[in-house]
Specification:
Layout: E1 4-9, H1 26-33, H2 35-50, E2 54-58, H3 69-84, E3 89-92, E4 112-114, E5 120-126, E6 129-135, E7 159-165, H4 182-187, E8 192-196, E9 202-206, E10 209-212, E11 228-234, E12 239-245, E13 250-257, H5 264-282, E14 285-294, H6 296-303, H7 307-317, E15 325-334, H8 343-354, H9 357-369, H10 382-399
Parallel strand pairs: 1-2, 2-3, 3-4, 6-7, 7-8, 8-10, 13-14, 14-15
Antiparallel strand pairs: 1-11, 5-6, 9-10, 11-12
InterPro entries: Calcineurin-like_PHP, DNA_Repair-Maintenance_Comp, Metallo-depent_PP-like, Mre11_N, Pesterase_YhaO
GO molecular function: exonuclease activity
Keywords: Exonuclease, Hydrolase, Nuclease
Length: about 400
């Protein structure tokens, strides 16, 4: 059989509200707010230019079950553009845009096949022969059972592709939905598994390929780096994956060495140089700025300044850069961290670093139970705890140096 070529994307999250972003200027906020829609436009334009055999969209097209009406209009327009070029789309809905939500209906063109809440198959005729797709959409927000058990085993030599929006069993980085084991997918003898739900790009297997493309646009500081989709060339013997970037605003961490710096103008210049170089490759970005190689003098220079003032000053210093760059937060990595730390400060840091997730949950429970604030907070996981420990230790070091 001849090879087939298609686009595999997932987790578009069109209409994402970008909760938690503060202090952005009006134009900067609008660019961030529109970034998922613009990333989607880049995907559509690529498909129109390259004309794949079909496009796969594996869940969470929209960010919420109410399906933002502006996002729906943009998605319908994109599907119609593909229809005009006779490019088929096979898709499913995920936990964010499940079928039980309430939304204003848009009719999608005939080139789009959307799976319903039961596992089913759809056959598509291509120039290289028929392709059978198996998948389902979320009928409700939470699906805890293993849906892959209902996927039939491939029975003939046609191409078989599985669409599955779910979690690898044992992966705690995301909420667990429709869990599966890699061995279960391999047992179905499909030629390709198109996954969604996990926002980090990764290949779980090569023969056959079991692939998460990640999302097309980062939405917060934990979704760092370039985002996009895969263009897949598939034959019965090989699978070739080409990553196509689409992210409009890149979330990332940028390290700036403060070694030997004793004056603030030196620090500003170092930041300007590093961020100018970073944006040449990344474009617009929202970053966590990490000052590294801090010795006693450079740490003292920064520790004496309130964090809010330091942020404001650094943001102003890069305001005229060619690309929009927003410094969301600052981290300090001191070389001689505890040489001048007071005994009580060292004890506090040691105690905090010994806390486990359960300790943090107990401490933060009132905040997370608050009806207004809780919806803006991220889940307390290992990464969140690590960041809290680092931020807390830095505040202690800034305020409890020996003699204070």
């Amino acid at each position: 059989m001849e090879s087939i070529r298609f686009i595999h994307t997932a987790d578009l999250h069109l209409g994402s509200p970008f909760s938690g972003m503060r202090d952005l200027q009006k134009e900067q906020w609008q660019k961030l707010k529109d970034s998922t829609l613009e990333a989607f436009d880049r995907l559509i334009n690529y498909a129109l230019k390259t004309k794949p055999d079909f496009v796969l969209i594996v869940g969470d097209i929209y960010d919420g079950e109410d399906r933002n009406i502006r996002a729906q209009a943009r998605f319908q327009k994109g599907m119609q553009q593909l229809a005009n070029q006779k490019i088929p789309v096979i898709m499913c809905y995920g936990n964010h845009d499940h079928l039980s939500g309430n939304w204003t209906r848009f009719e999608l063109p005939e080139n789009v096949h959307a799976f319903d809440e039961t596992v089913s198959q759809f056959k598509l005729a291509t120039a290289s022969g028929p392709v059978t797709f198996t998948g389902f959409s979320y009928g409700k927000r939470h699906i805890s059972e293993s849906m892959v058990k209902q996927y039939p085993v491939a029975q003939n030599q046609e191409y078989h592709i599985g669409l599955l929006h779910g979690s690898l069993e044992g992966d705690s980085t995301h909420a667990v939905y429709a869990p599966f084991k890699k061995e279960q997918l391999l047992s179905k003898q499909y030629d390709y598994w198109a996954l969604g739900h996990i926002h980090k790009r990764q290949e779980l297997a090569n023969e056959p390929a079991i692939v998460y493309p990640g999302n097309i646009q980062g939405r917060h500081r934990k979704e760092t780096g370039v985002k996009g989709f895969y263009e897949v060339t598939l034959s019965k013997t090989t699978t070739q994956l080409a990553f196509i970037p689409t992210s409009v605003v890149q979330f990332d961490r940028v390290a700036v060495s403060a070694k030997g710096i004793i004056h603030m103008n030196e620090l500003i210049e170092a930041c300007q140089d590093k961020l100018s170089l970073f944006t040449q490759g990344a474009g617009a970005a929202i970053i966590e700025l990490v000052f590294t190689e801090l010795d006693k003098e450079s740490f003292q220079l920064l520790a004496e300044i309130p964090e809010s003032e330091l942020l404001e000053m650094l943001r102003e210093s890069i305001a005229e850069m060619e690309w929009f760059v927003w410094i969301q937060s600052i981290q300090l990595q001191q070389v001689e961290q505890d040489s001048e730390l007071s005994p009580i400060g060292a004890t506090l840091i040691e105690t905090i670093e010994s806390w486990e997730i359960d300790n943090w949950k107990a401490i933060l429970k009132d905040l997370y139970r608050h009806p207004k604030s809780s919806r803006f907070l991220e889940a307390v996981d290992d990464q969140t705890v690590g960041e809290l420990q680092l931020a807390t230790a830095q505040k202690i070091r800034r305020r409890m140096q020996a003699g204070e």
